[in-house]
Amino acid sequence: MGNAWWNLTLRFLLELAALVGLGIAGWSLSGGWSRWVLALALPVIAAALWGTFAVRDDPSRSGRAPVPVPGTVRLVLELVILFGGASGFYAAGHTTTSIVIALLIAISYAFSLDRLSWLLKQ
């Protein structure tokens, strides 16, 4: 899979942005002590899911899969977390940021068609 360095970098930055967006959503959509819990828990849960459920021998990752899953499951997980982060920015009132992130997610996947095809075959 020939993902260009720029796309791998973009993908990593989008993963970080998703975690920030989920944290911002947790903070802005709740109050009191629960805002602290959600602002910390949502990104931690998302990161744990991202790192745990993977396709065995995925060349865009380390190749390790602590909990192996089919490619379609991994793809859905990625899309839920990435677009969930973008939605988190939107829910917190950062509309432009959410739109830019959503567009960058689409661009990243558009330039990863070989990986998408591989995932769907697993």
Explain this structure:
The protein is mainly alpha-helical and 122 residues long. It is built from 5 helices and 2 strands, in the order H-H-E-E-H-H-H. It has a two-stranded parallel ribbon with strand order 1-2. Helix 1 crosses helix 3 (71-91) and helix 1 runs antiparallel to helix 4. The chain is globular. The chain starts with a helix and ends with a helix. The mean pLDDT is 93.
Summarize the structure.
The chain is mainly alpha-helical. It contains 5 helices and 2 strands, in the order ααββααα.
* Fraction of residues in helix: over 70%
Major β-sheet annotation:
2 strands, parallel
Structural class: mainly alpha
**Average pLDDT rating:** 93
User: How far apart are the termini?
Assistant: 14 Å
Number of helices: 5
The poorly predicted ranges are none
Radius of gyration: 15 Å
- Write down how many β-strands occur, each being a DSSP E stretch of 2 or more residues: 2
Strand arrangement within the widest β-sheet reads: 1-2
